[in-house]
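Internal tracking record. Fields below are filled automatically when a chain is submitted to the structure queue. Please do not edit lines marked as system-generated. If the sequence contains nonstandard residues, flag them in the REMARKS field before resubmitting.
Queue: standard
Priority: normal
Entity type: single polypeptide chain
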Amino acid sequence: MRLFSWRFIRVWQRNRDVFFGLWHAEAPGFLAEPIIILLAMGLGLGAYVGLVDGQRYIEFIVPGLIAGYAMFSANFECTYGSFFRMEYQKTFDAIIATPLNIEDVTAGEIFWGATRSVLTGSVMLAVAAAFQLVHSPWALLIPIICFLEGILFSAIALFFTSVVPSIYSFNYYYSLFITPMFFFSGVFFPLSSFPEIVQTLSWAVPLTPVVYITRAVIGGEFQPGLLGALALIVALTVLFFSMSLVTMRRRLAT
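SYSTEM-GENERATED OUTPUT FOLLOWS
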């Protein structure tokens, strides 16, 4: 495994410039859906659901939706976005013909995916605050949490992108990994409502500790388990970041 250099920032800047040129076409899709789900689930279904862990249902799902859609932003950017840049637009080939190397491209893609997570999470936090669903100043930590989450899921997504044979393979990634994780990580229901085996398996997926930490900072309630959740996020990030550096070199160097 080779390490990346500070030049990865140039890849990040390239993706940033493209995003700002196309933001009016991309932003509505990534922002409208989470807001609609927040209102539909929180106000619609919430009218038929009692208190959940001492909170109104809409207050309960806000942290999970922030974490969930920050995850989706990083994943879409580093699966479909990265695959198009790699295979169809040949952007990566053009970049590595410059002084930048493959590891710089990999790191730039991952950190750009994390930036997209921050943008999505911050907008959703602002919407939740506008609806008076945020009750703790610790919620200002949400962009930092989304950044860490974004690095994690961008690394996972880019690792998968580096090994798939075609763009159609992403159907398996989203159907068998991302979507089930979204529903079984405590986003919409407390983990305690699931059977014990499901609760145990839920902690084996990376979204669960992120939702746990996000819910803690928005509610201002901190428990000893937060350190363990943070350690799990860091460990998974290091693992998948390292793996993506190796597999992207194999993909682009052949």
